[in-house]
Amino acid sequence: MTRKVTDVTHPNDRRPANPWQRVTAALHTWRTRRHEHAPPTGDTESPAPEPVPGANTLWRMRTTVKDEPGSLAALCTALAEHRVDILSLQTHPLAEGTVDEFLLRAPGELSASGIATAVRTAGGNDTWIERADAHDLVDAPTRILGLAARTALDAAELPLALRQLLGRCTIRSQPAPAGGGRAADGVPVEGALDDTVMRLRAPEGGVLTVERPYLPFTPTEFARARALVELDARLGPRVPHGRDVLTLAEGGDITVRRADTRDLEAARAMHERCSDRTLKLRYHGPVGDADRYLNHLLSPRFGRTLAVQTASGRLVGLGHLLWDGDETEVALIVEDTWQRRGIGGELLGRLVAMAAEGGCRRVYAVTQSSNTGMVAAMRGLGLPLDYQVEEGTLVITARLGEPVASGAGESGSASAS
Hints:
Elements lengths: L2 H4 L12 H16 L21 E10 L5 H11 L3 E9 L4 E10 L4 H10 L3 E7 L8 H14 L3 H10 L3 E5 L17 E3 L2 E5 L5 E5 L7 H17 L7 E5 L5 E7 L4 H10 L2 H8 L10 H5 L4 E8 L4 E10 L2 E8 L8 H15 L4 E7 L3 H8 L5 E6 L2 E7 L18
Parallel strand pairs: 13-14
Antiparallel strand pairs: 1-3, 1-4, 2-3, 5-8, 6-7, 7-8, 9-10, 10-11, 11-12, 12-13, 14-16, 15-16
Helix pairs in contact: 5-6, 5-7, 6-7
């Protein structure tokens, strides 16, 4: 399933007419419930963990102060009175006032609301605070240079880089209108910033929309995001050239490599060799619609794709990792004659590793309960899994970074998802 497909909605007074529409409507309901625009769970409205005596806690805080002498000094004094150390400070000038972004180390017993109250008393407004971790100790210029380097090496990194630069946000990509011309909705070349939404010209001519409802963007963040997008545009299409040659258990070698839209014809040829059942398990709809999703799926703008090819160069499997906020979708398809050889499990493991490396907290697969191969492959990850069934559609979510006890999972290969 792709984002383009799962965003389809249906009128409330009419039940979806066919199985494909029922799958789409059920998945839309699931995603709407799980992706409501709400503040991160680590903000001041969330229950704080039990304090540990003598321990310190890292916090990221943002507040707006008046742009006048002494305002920042008053804020620092108020924090010092509560034994809060300021580890780093960034300023984001506004037309009126200044947004100050802090990395703080506070006594473990001091709550987020306690810090926010002290800041408000010292003149801070619109204060936002959440828990930080050791990764936030890297200074901003170093972190931004690292994101730029990753973007330069791989076009698929741009959405991830923007998310890591801006925090938890929703990124949507809208393709350019057919026949070229101006970007959709007339977004100017320099982009547009409107409080919690920024819109940027995508390198391929479409529009990237970035939304963070719980925290407005600053002009400084907008400029940084524009710089990353401009870097991506100047470098053009690119995919890492690395590839791994693997030997299957029954013998014979396969190659696993990154894929993009240049593999479109090979992917369509693989579809021609797949059975209707395999195509339905993967795309959940009429088999005739399978080909029209490939251009979207193979685009690095929406995620990463791994391809499996034989020694003769024939493409026999695809694995997709599709960016979707803090959760990321994984999807697989393996040509019928190459199923049950461990290819699906190999693809899935690599995709999940990519998601974890990119900072994703969860990955989910949308499939059917009859797709035992995909279910077994997800269980074989050795990660905690959540199962949800909506109108016959099975959604399996794996929580990354939380391994289950040894033996809890089962290995298996996946034919499709």
